[in-house]
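Subject: complex prediction, re-run

Hi both,

The earlier run crashed halfway through, so I resubmitted it with identical inputs.
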Amino acid sequence: MISALGMRMRRFGLRLWRPKRLDWPLLYALFVLACIGLLTLYSASDENMRLVISQALRFVLGGLMLLVVSRIPPRVLQAWTPWLYAFSTFLLLVVAIIGEGRGAYRWLDLGVVRFQPSELLKLTMPMMVAWYLHPRHHPPSWKHTLGVAVLIAIPVSLIAEQPDLGTALLVAAAGAFALFLAGMRWWRILALVALAALAAPVAWHFMHEYQRQRVLTMLNPESDPLGAGWHIIQSKIAVGSGGFFGKGWQHSTQSRLDFLPEHTTDFVFAVFGEEFGLFGVLLLLCLYLFIIGRCLWLAAEARETYSRLLAGAIGMSFFVYVIVNGGMITGLLPVVGVPLPLVSYGGTSAVTLLTGFGVVMSIHAHRKTHE
Amino acid sequence: MPLSRARLKDARGETHLFRVRALTGFALIVLAMLVLATRFFWLQVVQHNEYAARSTQNRVHLRRLPPPRGLIYDRNGVLLADNVPAFRLDVTPERVKNMDAMLKRLSMIIPLSDDDLKAFRRSLKQHRAFQSVPLKLRLNEDEIDRFAVNRWRFPGVEVVPYLSRHYPQGAMFAHVVGHVGRINPSELAHLNPDLYDGTTHIGKTGIERYYESRLHGVPGYEVVEVNADQRVQRVLQTHPPKPGESLYLTLDVRIQKAAYDALDGRAGAAVAIDPRNGQVLAMVSTPSFDPNLFVGGISSSDYAQLLHDPEKPLLDRAIRGGYPPGSTVKPFIGLGGLELGLRKPSDTVLSTGVFHIPGQARGYRDDQRYGAGRVDLVQAIEQSVNTYFYKLALDMGIDRFSAWMSKFGFGKPTGIDLPDESSGVLPSRQWKRIHRNQVWFPGETVIAGIGQGYWVVTPVQLASALSTLADGGVPHRPYLLDAVRRGIDGKRTPSPMPAPGKPIKHDTKDWDAVLQGMIGVVYGDKGTARGLGAGFPYVIAGKTGTAERYSRTTKAYEETTNTKVLARRHRALFEAFTPAEHPRIAVVVVLEHGAWGGSVAAPVARKILDAWLAEQKSRGTAPAPSTSTSAAEGTP
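This time it finished cleanly. Structure:
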């Protein structure tokens, strides 16, 4: 993969910067989002400039990835898809055997950098589903649906086993969206949903104790206000006390006085809600909607089935971040480690996300060549 | 499905299908976002007030600021009770993971006595987990330093500055000023938490307890912002506490010291009162103890030692010690005889050594074995002739006797501003019926005439009665609170004097006769305290008393004249006031083991009077020397 990328780089290197080929509305929206993210982090981290700069560097790295990937024609990506998928799944296996991390086996130490192979799957999963479905008839038959299900199940079960429910959910969603966009029949979707509902007690049985606790806590946080319920309660207090216009930038007491845990990472949205109020939250949600809508729009413009499905799935899985994180901090959903995209500090999610948008840009940039 | 349709992909149809799905997907996403937005609306608009309140509750705490306790001064502004900055060790239970292990580790750095630990565990139960509880009071420099180095090992344990009570005069004022101590559970139940939150100590005895509500003050509070660890980040508002009132007592530290030194640790008490108004100038009970021991929490061994000391140092003899008044009541009885019209000053009685109630065999003895001969009232007081008063008491009868005596306050508390004053016992028919369920015998009237029998007085009671006598029959309730000062820089405002009681109706000539008798005690050639007035510029009027602790029926009494043996069964009393014509100070001295009032108790009284004189001279308020002094002294 690296060598292939290098070759492409050489070929496209001279024309790396081709502004007309980029989708500027999407890029602007991402830029605004990144700025909001940095401002929120600056406040949420108590003016910790080191943290803000380190996050900004991630954005720069992600931006470069975006530019580079936007130069790679979708055809090339398509050709490499099975290998990338197989490689990333293999890495997951490696992590399962030798990985390390705090309690959960997620990280792979490469000496220079440590990264989570599961992040790769966020991209290679929709790629693989799109690749699998693109030559096949739409809407997909039962057989093909089953095929997609297997493709999704293998890495997702590995990730869930780590255990990293958040990422597993995102990866599974990315694959499922591709299937949805390929036109999977509604009654089959409903049947699957019904099946999932029936399987819930079984899943409950296989859940870790802490995961069960999180579900129970979400249902009734006040049952253990100082323990498991603390996160949700403090997050709701932060959001609720923000009111309509918020307490103002840098005036989040919940975060500043450490009542709100993880206030730069998973719960940064609560800080945002406290400081900017419902007004800010609605604007932010609109910005997210715009980005998602723009991705779907760009996807619809593409002529190639693979590109369409991939761009659409990437756009829609962005939504999962927002809804799961937003649901978590407002107490609608259990606590799952899903960051608020491009706002939460840390991890590799910013780079992964921007790389994904690079793929969308690439699809947009190369749409005419396939006419 | 037909093969051809399976193989040939319908590009247009797929594009259309995709667009429909993308649109449907987006619509669903918008719907989900709307649900999320509604949730935000619910939290941030509908429930905003509740969450805003909880957010404030999270971070804004009220911290009680205990008020500094009012100080206590003597009448001249000499400090009797002070607040000194000290450091204590506080523990916040919530932040200590394993209390036992922590205490064990801590005790290796700072010695923790069993008493500290016991008190700590008791107050742990009275406080909520987030409230800090004092573990050890009054840390010394060494302990503070050692803890500072090891502080990181003890989360939840802190060295906290506070004001500790200190009694610079120590044992000298231990009983009257009293002391503070840690609030105990039963006290806590009765305290207003609004006033005592954050306060660790409360007045336990003496003035400290009686004027607790005035000394305590009103706590203030601070509005502070805390973080999730409950650490204070900043102070948002301060409402300073209102310090307790500082009290100026009527006591004079020099007179007190003279009395304390003169008693010299012997079991006894001395009370000095200004008869003109009831101000208590000195009030000492000995042996005494160091009240400072109680402030930091007295160790149980120290406490046991004080408690089991046979001399009972913790007992405030001045207001709770009960003694038969003995001959000190003779002037009152003599006056009664005159006022009730039973005697004239010139009436005489023959003292033969033994007095008999007509028709009864039992004899009541005089001090002198063969009697003092024929004596009038003045001589009877001067020489303390029992027979005179036996007969007088018998003539009065117990009912008139008790009624007269109760006018001087015998048998009831004086109402001095101190807690737990005893009322003593004034013998009466009614008292005996209630307490002994027996009828009154005439013989009991006879011995009441010399201050024996059921009669019990407290030193302050006798001093109060003496003041009333000295002031010509105007009773003044004895009191200690002279003035108060509100706030640190407030002005000293005199406390209202208690109104004088109803004057005892009297005939001046009668009172003069009694006074002459009392002057004779000090200056007469047969006076029981003769020589006491030597070198004193004013005429002193006095009366000795030697009360028996045991009945005289034992044979040993007859045969022993050994002072040491007598001392064990006698209580020596002396009462005096001066200047005789316009008394300004009345003194009562009681010694539990004195052999004779005149020889043991009277010199103590003289030292008190000397100190009073020096004090008057230093202020320039000393009255002109009595003109009659030299005459009285010159009398052979």
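Chain A has one domain: 23-365.

- K.
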